[in-house]
Amino acid sequence: MVDISRRKNFAITVAEEAGAQALKYFANRDTLVIDQKGSQDWVSEADRNVETFIRARIASAFPDDGIYGEEHAAKTGSSGFDWVIDPIDGTTNFVNGIPAWTIVLAGVSNGKTQVGVIFEPNVDETYVAMKGKGVTLNGQPIQVASNVGLASGTVSVGYSNRVEASNVIPVISALVGRGALYHRNASGALSLAYVAAGRLLGYIEEHMNAWDCLAGQLMIVEAGGVIENQDAESMIQYGGRVIAGTPDVFDTLKLICDDAWAK
User: Fold this and answer.
1) Cα–Cα dist 69/72, whole Å
2) DSSP annotation of 82
3) Are 25 and 51 in contact, with CB atoms under 8 Å apart?
4) Is residue 41's pLDDT more than 50?
5) What's the rounded mean pLDDT across residues 179-196?
6) Which of 58, 149, 166, 241 has the most beta carbons within 10 angstroms of its beta carbon?
């Protein structure tokens, strides 16, 4: 039987260790080797090396688990538990010296995300969620904002080179038209964590990869928020759209996205 609690505690430790490594690269980023994978899509030796470190730690502790990460090839497991990792989410911020990036680990079994850890090293904040057990920030329970409408809050909007950039315009227009502020910090995982912590009302993006969203989506649900129902294993293979928010705004966000992204 897969021990989810043990894996959660392991993920916290590894995320914080990886974050410490990433901070050293961040402090010396002028010497980093940086490649461009596509428009506004960057990868550095820090991303690759931090992911290698995380993979090695997983392979040592749980050799039968699968591993899916952004920078290296997938490793198929036999335990029924898969790790989904983004070594540095927010690489554009990272390489430009903006302290808004994070380490992301999610654990999946039976098509559901069971564990999510997001560590933001620059402010020493660790978000931890376990399916059915709630979500914490630095050990304290958190919850989504309550009784706050769009006209009194902020929604984060993401986009990437995987979709038509113009598709984000009607989304922003619809949010502004309803009195909301919109936010983008170039780290979808961090923005999802902020929704869980009550800092943002929601997060929407037409297409995200699993390593960017699974952990944060679990956090939002465990914090009392709402997400679209998705199979985690399908997200690992193909990615998909992400709509997440508080119960007060989710239906409106979904309507906005359905209108903007209708094919």
Assistant:
1) 6
2) E
3) no
4) no
5) 95
6) 58
Name residue 135's beta-bridge partners.
Answer: 129
Give the CATH number of domain 4-141; options: 3.40.50.2300, 3.40.1110.10, 3.30.540.10, 3.30.565.10. 3.30.540.10
Q: Which amino acid would we find at residue 176?
A: V
**CATH class of the domain whose range is 150-261:** alpha beta
Residue 231: HSE in the Cβ half-sphere, 13 Å Cα cutoff: 6
- φ/ψ of residue 222, rounded to 5: -70, -20
Q: Which residues pair with 36 in a beta bridge?
A: 42
Contact at 8 Å (CB) between 119 and 138?
A: no
Q: 254 pairs with which residues across the strands?
A: none
Angle (CA) 134 140 143, round 5°: 50
Predicted TM-score (pTM) of this structure: 0.94
- Looking at residue 73, its amino acid is A
Q: What is the DSSP letter of 147?
A: S
The tokens for 181 are: 């502020």
The H-or-E segment that residue 261 falls in is helix 250-261
For 89-111, give the DSSP string.
E-HHHHHTT-S--EEEEEEEETT
Residue 263, pLDDT > 80, answer: no
